[in-house]
């Protein structure tokens, strides 16, 4: 079982995601395009491509199609029927389906980023931090310097050790 908090963390870890909470629902957008909504009845509705909708429906018997008229928008599944890892996966797939191509391509490229290969970021921060920073478009120590520690720690994969190494490298 997953929660709104898990969906929120997964969504907000993705670049340029915004959250809105109109009329009891919680909506996540990327550059103004909705990709996930958690309804008042604890169903996460995901804007997905046709192939992903088919996979989600096949994997989760309680999932249902989300349509507007005859147009397929995506699929919805009760939060209680998803575990955290599944929620992370499907929220990311929905984000990729709705994000602008260049932004999605940058995130996918960051998935393969290796320590020491991104701008002037130090290799010592490790693979998870390197990928998280690259995925957020943070590729230089000057990018890091413009952010506070809380902003860096909010990125999934960046921990206190990585922040300390980044600060030392930026000041050194």
TrEMBL record:
It comes from the Bacteria. SUPFAM superfamilies: YjbR-like. Pfam families: YjbR. Gene3D superfamilies: 5' to 3' exonuclease, C-terminal subdomain. This is Helix-hairpin-helix domain-containing protein. The lineage of its organism: Bacteria, Bacillati, Actinomycetota, Actinomycetes, Micrococcales.
């Amino acid at each position: 079982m997953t929660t709104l908090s898990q969906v929120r963390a997964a969504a907000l870890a993705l670049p340029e995601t915004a959250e809105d909470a109109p009329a009891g629902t919680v909506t996540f957008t990327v550059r103004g395009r909705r990709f996930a909504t958690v309804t008042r009845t604890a169903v996460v509705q995901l804007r997905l491509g046709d192939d992903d909708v088919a996979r989600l429906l096949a994997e989760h018997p309680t999932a249902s199609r989300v349509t507007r008229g005859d147009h397929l928008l995506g699929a919805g599944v009760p939060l209680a029927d998803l575990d955290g890892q599944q929620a992370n996966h499907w929220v990311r797939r929905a984000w990729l389906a709705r994000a602008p191509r260049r932004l999605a391509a940058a995130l996918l490229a960051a998935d393969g980023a290796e320590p020491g290969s991104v701008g002037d970021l130090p290799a010592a921060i490790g693979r998870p931090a390197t990928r998280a920073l690259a995925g957020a478009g943070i590729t230089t120590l000057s990018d890091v310097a413009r952010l506070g520690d809380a902003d860096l720690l909010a990125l999934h994969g960046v921990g206190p050790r990585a922040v300390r190494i980044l600060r030392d490298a930026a000041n050194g």
